[in-house]
Design goal:
The protein is of the alpha/beta class. It contains ten helices and nine strands. The strands form two sheets. It has a six-stranded parallel sheet, sandwiched between helices. A three-stranded antiparallel sheet has the order 7-9-8. Helix 1 links the parallel strand 1 and strand 2. Helix 8 packs across helix 9.
Length: 260
């Protein structure tokens, strides 16, 4: 992905009637790869009993719920509210792109209209999503793929823990990574996943872009929390990573995960 796309200001609009509650944290982590979610809204009838389970997820992800009553049985007022808001946001000029989270083909025309206005449009929905909505987006990501990747990463971490009991290789062990630095295991893995998101074929991720992505994924991330004044000093303290200087007079710094 071009670097300028990672700096996009994104409006994330979610159709609660056609979105997976359990996948929302993984979806928001995926959004951070494409840009900065400056607007995060989810639309539904929050007076309905079945919507109560969304509360904890919305608090964890800082997504704003937008109330939309179902005025008539069989009619989807949520779609209309989401479309109206999207057009208001478009004309406000405060965003560079949109993420539409839904498996509903009713948003096909909205995606097309936003692209006609020069917006970048990312779609995220289940594999049952109709083809017209998929092709109307610049990029469409299946939620099943997002969840599978998150599950695979969790399983890989578990295997690494098991391997650590049989191996003395500190660079391949989360446990040893924790022992070799003051940074907690989850922070080491956050850095590792962010390096993988940013790196090209050579495995190198730009230090500045890495810092930006870490903040997008974890707004309270700060190297000073772990006793380091700068991100580069924290990275150097972790055996798992390598810092590679490049550019004129070696003034550009890149990070490589030696476990990849």
């Amino acid at each position: 992905m071009p670097d300028n796309e990672r700096d996009l200001r994104l409006a994330v609009l979610i159709d609660a009637d056609n979105a997976s509650r359990t996948a929302m944290k993984d979806v928001m982590a995926e959004v951070a790869v494409y840009g900065t979610p400056t607007i995060k809204r989810i639309y539904g009838d929050w007076t309905a009993p079945n919507m109560n389970s969304w509360k904890s997820i919305l608090l964890e992800t800082a997504i704003t719920p937008v109330q939309q009553y179902s005025y008539t049985t069989g009619k989807n007022a949520t779609d209309s509210a989401m479309i109206i808001d999207a057009m208001d946001i478009l004309y406000s000029g405060n965003c560079d792109g949109f993420v539409l989270v839904s498996s509903d083909s009713d948003f096909t025309r909205l995606a097309t209209r936003l692209r006609e206005a020069g917006m970048k449009v990312y779609g995220m929905g289940e594999k049952k999503t109709p083809q017209p909505f998929i092709v109307a987006c610049d990029k469409f990501v299946y939620i099943e793929i997002i969840r599978a990747a998150a599950k695979q990463a969790a399983e890989a971490e578990k295997r690494a823990e098991q391997a650590a009991k049989k191996s003395s290789c500190k660079k391949e062990s989360k446990k040893s990574a924790q022992a070799s630095s003051p940074a907690p295991v989850d922070i080491v893995e956050l850095i590792a996943s962010s390096v993988e998101d940013l790196c090209e074929e050579d495995g190198l991720a730009h230090m500045g872009k890495l810092g930006n992505l870490l903040l997008k994924k974890k707004p309270d991330f700060d190297p000073r929390n772990y006793g380091f004044s700068k991100l580069s000093k924290l990275i150097r303290a972790l055996d798992r990573f390598e810092i590679v200087p490049q550019g004129e007079e070696n003034t550009e710094f890149y990070v490589r995960d030696t476990c990849l």
